[in-house]
């Protein structure tokens, strides 16, 4: 069992895999909508819009490939999805600097999304989405 599955002591892991999946789709929608609105702006909006669409694509790709049910029908385990969530949160947090709009007001959308993602990662019960063979290995250890 890795650190992601164990969680932070004292912090309840109250988000199950299906709830996490819904939150993923909400995140995709938020980034896609923000990207659409930002890209229409004349001053600097195109860079922020592209950054938002990249984040939406990252979350969409991980969501479509993740085995939320633990039945093995999709290639990415739920725990691997969690690791990709951490990478996406880092991308959201650094996008304003990478794309050159860190000093603009739209950068706060990305920082807020990164903080939200960190909260969801912390509160998700990653062990609940484990595949049966992984659960057996964890019980034996």
Question: How would you briefly describe this protein structure?
Answer:
This protein has one domain. The protein contains 6 helices and no strands.
Give the termini separation: 9 Å
Write the element-wise H/E pattern from the N-terminal end onward: HHHHHH
Q: Low-confidence stretches at least 5 residues in length (pLDDT < 50)?
A: none
Shape: elongated
Helix content: 55-70%
Largest sheet: none
Mean pLDDT: 91
Computed structural class: mainly alpha
- Fraction in beta strands: under 5%
Q: Compute the number of strand runs.
A: 0
- The tally of helices reads 6
Q: How many structural domains?
A: 1
Task: Please state the CA-atom Rg, rounded to the nearest Å.
Answer: 16 Å
Describe the fold and architecture.
This protein has 6 helices and no strands. The protein is elongated. Helix 2 (about 15-40) runs antiparallel to helix 3 (about 45-65). It is mainly alpha-helical and about 140 residues long. It is about 65% helix and about 0% strand. The protein has one domain (about 15-70, about 75-140).
Secondary structure elements and their pairing?
Layout: H1 3-6, H2 17-39, H3 45-65, H4 78-98, H5 107-123, H6 132-140
Helix pairs in contact: 2-3, 3-4, 4-5
Characteristic terms for this protein:
mainly alpha, 141 residues, 6 helices
